[in-house]
# Entry
Amino acid sequence: MKPHFAIRLTELLGRHKVSNANLEVVSEAAKMRDAPDIIDKFLPTRTIHFDPECIMSGEDFETVVGHFADATEGAWDLSELEGKMDWRAERGAVDFEVAGVAYHWEFEQIADYVSSELLKHIELFARTHLPGDFVEVPSPDQCYCAVYLERPAAQELRPLFEEYKDAFSH
# Structure
């Protein structure tokens, strides 16, 4: 079933003119076992991978947000990025600018895992300020993986992952 996923993904990306994957890439992807590896094969610069158990300081928020911004290939032109962590208050914060407009996010951060609230801020920012969305990629381990695609392609990719989710769970 997974080789069929790679073919359907190739068709989806081709329809949206996202990837110019050749037969060799498709053939290699069809042999891969995990969705993050397949997505990364097609879209290495738009794929985000990280271990969500990575928050030790505010700088780690900067790294995480930076991964998402980088995956947009310039659509999210972020500057003045600063992360803050207050372990006693169990709060994290991220400040940044885009085109001279300042943004400030605060969220609960009670452990060393990336907060779901931070991921929701990123998702909302994409939905309201970017031409695309981040689509979470099913991962067989604790790592977080997502891919950035323009909105029509992202909307089509989500149900494809849903259809194949059992095939990607080990």
